[in-house]
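Support request, please re-run this one:
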Amino acid sequence: MQIILLLMGTGLLFLAVSGSFAVINNLLEGYLSQSWGSVNGKVISSNINSSKTKNGYSYTPEVVYEYSVVQNVYTNKTIAFYFESTDSNNAGARVSKYLTGSHVKVFYNPNSPSISCLEPGFFLWENLGVWIISIFMGGIGLVFLAILYSGFMAKN
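Re-run finished. Output below.
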């Protein structure tokens, strides 16, 4: 039982920290992207990825685009700096904005041109859900570790 509590607790804490770092990175990159320069790019592929969930399916738009900065060619698939999983209609609407072969404006980080997006901006509300789930998982992980610790202290 102790090993299960240890593994579950540390695993959930790891996921919480990883999720929090991903959200912080998205918020930071989104904020900074508002002042980035832009170049013309081209959509290489545009489709909808689906995955099975408890309640049916989740749909994520995936747009792969190519652009060049100072004669270096880059490929990326970041539409905006937030986690996007939605229903098929919304995913279809997002993908229809970026059809394969179409030309797009790509915003890129001047200090690291391989980092780019199609829609710059600070998306607090779109990232908030992932952050809340991360904090919740971390809380559960701490509860597991506290139970383990209290059991350990009771034996000693």
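The radius of gyration is 20 Å. The chain has a mean pLDDT of 85.
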